[in-house]
């Protein structure tokens, strides 16, 4: 008999019980002795490794798997988190299924449903959405959101960097380095980390009694990793409209690197004429020439906190009732662009 | 009644048939009318969206999901492939579960098993191993291997770049640019792409009647994206031992970029004293200063070929019998390092 080919009828025959009893054992429903249970499970284990895994999932409502929803695996910050969470759970006997949403709301919903249908025990979600829809999940499984705060849903815990303090520290640093006309370079998005970083920028301006001008928040559409021409165009447009720029706080390192390249091509010296601070401390920040001043997110701590929290929720039902919001500190790393 | 909480007994009651009949329908085994089948499935669909998905998988042996095994998501070549395959299948109604093996043989085996247990319909495998063990899979599902050729297994199709021609083109280019002492910089690995690239290098040397010296294949252990100090150490050691180097063929772009930075720190001018060619044409190759001469892999074509082949194998049983080996051409991209 081939593996995975056995039917309930055959299981019944081989274990010497009725089909109905096999059904009861598989569904863990109704009366049967521990002896019967063992006999049936032994046959299932012997003859169908694979269907057994699915049957076990059905029976136990546990699959020793978790799901990770990630909006962009080409983003080093996200891929490092995915890497770390996967490693943590593999060491504890869990498989991790990664689903890539490509920043699409439709995909995010579809993948949350898929992972639920595959009976994952828990979810780590780096959501691209403002809300996570409760109705996508048929079971009340623990969810940890990293980096981004969805507005609703009761049973979600959140781990994120102190984005507000990051924006504040970056701006304060630029002011202390003598910048008087600091713009923010960011993406078109309404995600909580970006909003918090901008709030930190505004707070720093206000502490130094500088007026906040909303037109200084420059949003670049469809930003890819390298997009020097587009960045140049955007900065050129601002300068043409009479804006004086001596400082740029970019809300990620790639925006910052593109800004430095664009400024160079426009004839500005960095940090001589314009100082630039990024966000994330991606590996390239250190190796780029000039090396990039940036706000470092503590990915190691984010991974540790998120993984151990989810693991506790999976293994300790009481713990699962708590809803946590953990904020991880950030650090300014001063390099050559400021 | 809560979703996902219904038992086989309750399904039987609600659809007016016996428990044994429900089992037969779920297992698609034995005698029952189409009417009975419909009644049972309607109840399952109405009351248990989620268990239904698992039950349907059990019944149909189809789950509308595929798995991707990827050794390193921080590698742009791999993450772009994953991205492309996921997009192709999502458009055709399939969910993709990505499993990250971190180059570990143990993880690769565990994840192939996990994906099999979750009843994925097919696998795309970027294997870090020399062999894919048949016994890991309980079902005979189609597998496409990208980039790396496992030695065994019958039912595997392979899509890969013309690595041999890449190594040949890179070396020929360096020779034509005047290099006489060309070393290969590579990782410690016995994977087929690297071996083929080195064979191409040897072929080009032989065509120009240069002697191949095996000590010119320099293997750097544990290479990360940025590893300038280690690269410097390795190159310095070769020079101290009397090796003259005027050309480097690096088997990926990151090795090449690190080599350029290391050479600069050692006081060599690139391309004046030493010319460097990479492999992959990662995005950074174009933006690095100096921009990098490299061998471009046609990722778009690799994704198209792999995805459409797997899709045909999933939807056309006859097609599935064929075993294909598709080799995608590569191109030399000449830039500032040569």
Short key terms for the protein model shown above:
homodimer, about 350 residues, alpha/beta, 434 Repressor (Amino-terminal Domain), Rossmann fold, 3 domains, six-stranded parallel β-sheet, six-stranded mixed β-sheet, 13 helices, about 45% helix
- Helix content range of the residues of chain A, please? 40-55%
Mean pLDDT of chain A: 86
Bin the strand percentage of chain A: 15-25%
CATH-scheme architecture of the largest domain in chain A: 3-Layer(aba) Sandwich
- Distance from N terminus to C terminus of chain A (CA atoms, Å) equals 70 Å
CATH C-level class of the largest domain in chain A is: Alpha Beta
Number of strands of chain A: 12
What is the largest interface, and how many residues per chain?
Answer: A-B, 61 and 61 residues
The number of distinct helices of chain A, counting runs of at least 4 residues, comes to 13
Report the CATH superfamily of the largest domain in chain A.
Response regulator
Order of helices and strands of chain A: HHHHEHEHEEEHEHEHEHEHEHHEE
What does the largest sheet of chain A look like?
Answer: 6 strands, parallel
What would you report as the Rg of chain A, rounded to the nearest angstrom? Answer: 26 Å
């Amino acid at each position: 008999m081939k593996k995975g080919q056995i039917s309930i009828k055959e299981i019944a025959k081989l274990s010497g019980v009725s089909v109905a009893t096999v059904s009861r054992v598989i569904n863990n429903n109704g009366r049967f002795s521990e002896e019967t249970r063992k006999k049936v499970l032994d046959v299932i284990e012997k003859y169908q490794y694979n269907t057994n895994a699915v049957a076990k999932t059905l029976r136990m409502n546990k699959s020793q798997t978790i799901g990770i929803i990630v909006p962009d695996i080409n983003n080093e910050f996200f891929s490092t988190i995915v890497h770390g969470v996967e490693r943590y759970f593999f060491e504890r006997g869990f498989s991790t299924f990664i689903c890539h949403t490509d920043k699409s709301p439709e995909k995010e919903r579809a993948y949350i449903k898929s992972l639920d249908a595959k009976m994952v025990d828990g979810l780590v979600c780096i959501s691209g959405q403002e809300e996570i829809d409760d109705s996508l999940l048929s079971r009340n499984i623990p969810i940890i959101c990293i980096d981004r705060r969805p507005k609703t849903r009761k049973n979600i815990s959140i781990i994120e960097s102190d984005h507000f303090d990051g924006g504040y520290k970056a701006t304060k640093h630029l002011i202390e380095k003598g910048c008087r006309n600091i713009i923010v370079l960011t993406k078109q998005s309404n995600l909580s980390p970006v909003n918090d970083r901008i709030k930190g920028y505004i707070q720093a301006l206000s502490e130094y009694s500088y007026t906040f001008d909303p037109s200084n928040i420059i949003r670049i559409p469809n930003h890819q990793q390298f997009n020097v021409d587009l960045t140049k165009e955007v900065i050129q447009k601002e300068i043409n409209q009479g804006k004086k720029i001596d400082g740029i706080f970019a809300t990620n390192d790639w925006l910052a690197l593109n800004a430095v390249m664009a400024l160079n091509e426009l004839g500005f010296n960095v940090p001589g004429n314009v100082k630039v601070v990024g966000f994330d401390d991606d590996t390239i920040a250190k190796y780029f020439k000039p090396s990039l001043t940036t706000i470092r997110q503590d990915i190691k701590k984010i991974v540790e906190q998120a993984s151990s929290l989810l693991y506790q929720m999976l293994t300790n039902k009481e713990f699962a009732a708590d809803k946590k919001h953990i904020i991880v500190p950030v650090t300014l790393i001063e390099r050559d662009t400021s």
